Amino acid sequence: MTAALAPHDRARPLTKGSTYPARDLCSQCGLCDSRWVAYVRRACAFLEQRFEAMEDEAHGRSRNLDDENELYFGVQQRMLTARLRQPIEGAQWTGIVSRIGVRALESGLVDAVLCVGQSEDDRFTPVPRLARTSAEVLAARVNKPTLSPNLEVLEQLPGSGIRRLLAIGVGCQIQALRAVQATLPLDQLYVLGLPCVDNVSRQGLQTFLESASASPATVVHYEFMQDFRIHFRHEDGHQETVPFFGLDTPALKDVFAPSCLSCFDYTNAGADLVVGYMGATFGRQWLTVRNDRGADLLALVEDELDTAPVSSRGDRRQAVQQGIDAYDKALRLPMWLAELVGFVVQRFGPQGLEYGRFSIDSHFTRNALWLRRHHPAMAERHIPAFAERIVSRYRLPAS
């Protein structure tokens, strides 16, 4: 499946941090801190968008833009919602991603799992690793919502004895990984993708936590959930929730990484299997199987899951249009009004796949506008066809 490294690939990588061709748009995916930096001009999601080619190579075809589900969620064999019947203690939700990683190792499907642990000094500082045991996979549970150099661990592959790898990552990482896949010293690569938007630097994360949480120092993890509230879990186990509409938008408008403000791979188009929450009702996870390798990953745990079909309810369009205008003007609602709006939207607003489309529409329109304002010369070639079709459905402020 993959080729041996060419002589120039065996050279030592450049000093870490010495070159990032995407400059301010770099997502710190780690590729440039490995010997695979030689491929960055073709591999970097922020230097060259190659969605159709990536989908063709990974799944055997690109998405059907006339199919509403594929337009939004990408190539798919199957979509479903699920939760583990026996959740993993300490996992962010029920732990489906971690369980797949564990089962992939235990079954012998792979030799290692590329996952993200945390620094000994800071729970939110990501430390990518090649996990070879179930304990190492479980130690990496819970998202680290900061930019993470996952692909720097590719440097450890030559001579490691790892021939079959399960890589867990977000869209920009997976786009780069797919672009260099044929050069990796692997016999088989499985990709488990996470939907991703709005990552931040560690400093940016601190700004967000201090703005949004009553106790930022004790937050263990958080997520923007389908009930239109941010759910924070704290060290003592208690949960704190804050309505989306109560965020300090003026303070947070510029906290997100420029790479995330120019990204259109929310649903991780290149992954074999995607596990997130965006297309499920509250309390469940959303899974998209894109190809046969994704089906093999799901088969590892399906007997342990409580599964259900995807569903969809409501109409997102008015809420998206209002959100475009509110975000552009950096409006902040008083908390009493934010709670009221949140209650109404939760009760009567989009749910299931329609919530997923609401989130995609909101981010794609925001990102298209950001690109047109900050990088007008690259906007036309950088916004993929599926995103352009979605964005065209809305009225955007003047760029």
Secondary structure topology:
Layout: H1 40-43, H2 51-59, H3 68-73, E1 78-84, H4 96-106, E2 112-118, E3 126-131, H5 134-139, E4 164-169, H6 171-180, E5 188-193, H7 202-212, E6 219-224, E7 229-234, E8 239-243, H8 249-252, H9 258-261, E9 273-276, E10 285-289, H10 292-299, E11 305-308, E12 312-313, H11 317-328, H12 335-348, E13 351-352, H13 353-374, H14 376-382, H15 385-391
Parallel strand pairs: 2-4, 4-5, 5-9
Antiparallel strand pairs: 1-10, 1-11, 2-3, 6-7, 7-8, 9-10, 12-13
**Strand count:** 13
Order of helices and strands: HHHEHEEHEHEHEEEHHEEHEEHHEHHH
> Could you tell me the strand content as a percent range?
15-25%
Strand order of the largest sheet: 3-2-4-5-9-10-1-11
Alpha carbon gap, first and last residue: 45 Å
Helix content: 25-40%
Mean pLDDT over the residues: 90
How does the overall form come out from the CA principal axes?
Answer: globular
Give descriptors for this structure:
399 residues, eight-stranded mixed sheet, alpha+beta, disordered N terminus, three-stranded antiparallel sheet, globular
Describe this structure in words.
The protein has 399 residues and is α+β, with helices and mostly antiparallel strands. The protein has a domain at 7-199 and 259-312. Helix content is 34%, strand content 17%. It is built from 15 helices and 13 strands. The chain has helices spanning 40-43, 51-59, 68-73, 96-106, 134-139, 171-180, 202-212, 249-252, 258-261, 292-299, 317-328, 335-348, 353-374, 376-382, 385-391, and strands spanning 78-84, 112-118, 126-131, 164-169, 188-193, 219-224, 229-234, 239-243, 273-276, 285-289, 305-308, 312-313, 351-352. The strands form three sheets. It has an eight-stranded mixed β-sheet. Strand 7 (229-234) and strand 8 (239-243) form a beta hairpin. Helix 11 runs parallel beside helix 13, helix 13 (353-374) runs antiparallel to helix 14 and helix 13 (353-374) crosses helix 15. It is globular. The model is unreliable at 1-15 (pLDDT under 50).
